[in-house]
Amino acid sequence: MIGLNTAAVYILQTIGSFYLLIVLLRFILQLVRADFYNPLSQFIVRATHPLLKPLRRIIPSLGGLDLASLVLALIVQYVLMALTLMLMGVGVGDPLLILVWSLIGVTALLLKVFFFALIISVILSWVAQGTHNPAALLVNQICEPLLMPIRRILPNLGGLDLSPIVAFLILNLLDMLVIRNLAVSTGMFSGLSLAI
């Protein structure tokens, strides 16, 4: 029975985390004002539309922030955590605490998305500079708002762009000092969120 529960947790977290990532990407794409005619953007829009449509009637956007997709990400993370706790045999416990853990999990995943987008962007700048691949264009659109303020501060070093290194440092510091400390201080179970 324990093996079946472990397998169920694995399947639940894999499928649920993939959908959570898609929902969070929908939020990020609107946040960075990415090209919604990009084929990958269209996939993300179509995958999230059925659940976002009713939420948009209740939750309006605020200053360019797609709050409905952010709320949907929190709901998906909450349901994933509650189901994982039940499958682990712990029980659901305090709903407010699971909501706090959901906030931590979604924030951690948001940082991870930017982190891995930066890695992909750096690799593409070495091997496929100037490519017109839809995925590469989308990754650059996600990274650019994060790198632009850093480029304004750093001195121009000719053809060498150090802004991704500074961005990596900032993202890792936020993850180590804020997210992981919050997870530990709230007693978050390890394995509840794949991003932590």
TrEMBL record:
Segments passing through the bilayer: 7-29, 67-89, 96-128, 162-183
GO cellular component, one term: membrane
Pfam families in the cross-refs: CCB3_YggT
Keywords of the record: Membrane, Transmembrane, Transmembrane helix
Superkingdom of the organism of origin: Bacteria
Database matches in InterPro entries: CCB3/YggT (IPR003425)
PANTHER family xrefs: PROTEIN COFACTOR ASSEMBLY OF COMPLEX C SUBUNIT B CCB3, CHLOROPLASTIC-RELATED (PTHR33219:SF14), YLMG HOMOLOG PROTEIN 2, CHLOROPLASTIC (PTHR33219)
Family, similarity comment: Belongs to the YggT family.
Protein name: YggT family protein
Organism encoding this protein: Phytopseudomonas seleniipraecipitans
